[in-house]
Amino acid sequence: MFLYLQRLLLVTLSIMITVQIGWGQGPQPRDGAVGGGDGEQTKIAKMQYKIGTGAYKDVNGTIFVKKDTTVSFQVLTPQGDTTFPDNPPVWKKNHAGTDTDLPPAGATNNVTFDTVSNAANDYYTITAKNPHDATNNVQANVVVFGIKLKKDGGDITDTNVFAGQLMNMSADTTPYTPTTFSWIIDGKINGGWEANHIHSLEKPADLSHQTVAFYWSTGGNKTVTFKVTVETGEDYTASVTFNAKRPDISVTSRTTYASFQDNLLKLGEIDVTEGIYHERSAIPAGFGTGTTIWVQRIPSYDYKYEATAAFNYLSCRSTLTTSALDTMDTVDYKYKPSTPDCATDSPDYGVGASVLYTYDTTSFETNLMYQPEGDQSIPIPISLVSWYWTAEGKIDKVAPTNSWSLDDFYNTNKFPTPTVTSTNCVDYPIWTGDSQSFPSGPAHYPQVDIIKGTVSGDVIAGVTISVPGRPSVTTGVDGTYSLPVGGGGPVTYTVTPSKPGFHFNPASQDVTVDWNIVSGINFTAITN
Asked: Is the full-model pTM beyond 0.90?
């Protein structure tokens, strides 16, 4: 019996020694883990997030997201991987003190935020916890905001608008106040159109605020987008598409001929009221009480001149260097406002009593504009009619006629109808002056073409200087002369000196003048 107990004690002791040796040779906890064997736990080192297909970013501070955005969160070990073999994180969402368990998802979890925060510091807190270590957890604070586009301060319930009506848009991003944002607006827009006799100005739209005001001048589907860039670099947008209605209105024009009437060179036959007549089509149904407006300009070229009986001066030369508002028969900038469905014109040019010859060519641009109903609406361009007229007249110097007629060069006293081009137009008419402020144009040149020179040699005074078809002059006591030859160049004249008993070197000179004074046309007198 004693021998049996002794053997049993030795076996038991051997087993205990073996177990103790086995424990000491078992696996050791890896770096960043707590405990060992079946109880090993990997620490959670940090949390990252991403939105959409972007890359994961470390959570540093508050995350701002738009309502209904899904955010992907992940946690990392101290080694930078997402392997948690024995203690997958427990995910929770907390809002206003209430915890909500998120579905177990391992090291990553996708969370959709479908409710807007109540204030800028009202956070949704996403926490990833170590199930075996209450002190080992990471979290992210999220503020959820909305982007709601409004029109005229209220909800957008009707997306049908009129081009030319004020679009007063705002973006509500409660509870977040963005510092970086932008508006993206389709179509041709402006901040208004200012027009009077002095100038026309298309104002740019100010898109630098969360509330913007603008007008469309073009029609069709137009999308308005508000974009917010949050502090962490993500972009969020909200959009609404409007149908900007723009009326389809066409213009037809008819013209007549140029004529002389009551010492006027005019567009329009005698006893015919209109030289040109523009008529618009009806405003289509569905455009309420909108009205049309005509605006007429004289573009950058308007050229006219006349020559006197003595042919010694040019009474007027006018060249417009900038577009001028045609203010004849207008109220403010509106042309012929008493007949909004049509516009007529008979431009003319008065002929002075001493004038023998006159020429006129003038270009015009007539805009049809539409202004929709509403106190804050502005006119928008619809159609542009470009036209010009030209005529040349002369007086019959043979008594007793002494009357004006159109030059035969222009098709036997009648000039063909003016050239008229009508097109759809979306560009505003612009001018920097008016035709009444500059009745002869901004550049008005009463001017003489003059040839000057000196006669030297055997005689200097009393030498006759002449050109064909113009009055001659004689040199003064100092031998100088100044010979006016009219205007309207370029014209080449042959200048010839003469005096009995003398010949000259050179005998004559050809001189070209072009609205200028030519000097240095000199001659030497030689006794025969």
From this structure: no
